[in-house]
Amino acid sequence: MARDWQPGFEQLVDEHQSMVFSLAVRMTADRGLSEEIAQDVFLDLDRHLMKLESPLHACRWLRRVTMSRAADALRRRRVRGVDLWVEIDETHGAQPEERSSPLAAELDRLLATLPAAHRAALVLRYQEDLTPEEIAATLNAPLATVKSNLQRGLKLLRAKAASQLKDYVRADRTPKGVLNDGRV
After folding, report:
1. Radius of gyration of the chain from its Cα atoms, rounded to whole angstroms
2. Measured between alpha carbons, how far is 6 from 166 in angstroms, rounded to an integer?
3. What is the pLDDT of residues 93-114, one digit of tens each?
4. Can you list the domains of the chain with their CATH numbers?
């Protein structure tokens, strides 16, 4: 069977390296470990390059392998007894224009405290904008399980946000330390 699409390794890396790294960071909450995961994923890509049939297949393959590698890394940490929830510094290694807001950093921190299955479903749904069916295919999980993980993950994240992000949410919607007329 002849294929029209001939994947280029460098092109695939350029197009997908930020997605792979971002998925790994969101799953592990550890930038160093995420760099290792991304490197492993792209080494694996080099070995499987000729099996990929289209750009869409390559993207889906990269997502699936990244999520699998991140889950494996979390399992290895748990077995070794390493603290899973490493506090990450959002500004480490980021350019000034890439630094996130304090609220985004807090949400990332809360996301990192969710169980891996819930976190994986939420990251793929809201970061990668995948449908529940696509998430099920990516994670090789039943659709009902994915839907349940999405529901439970959102419920947990909302509960954690309500209790831990009080500085960002106030009844009068005025940021802490700011008067209603805008003066500090």
Report:
1. 19
2. 52
3. 443 334 467 878 888 889 989 9
4. 1-89 (1.10.1740.10), 101-167 (1.10.10.10)
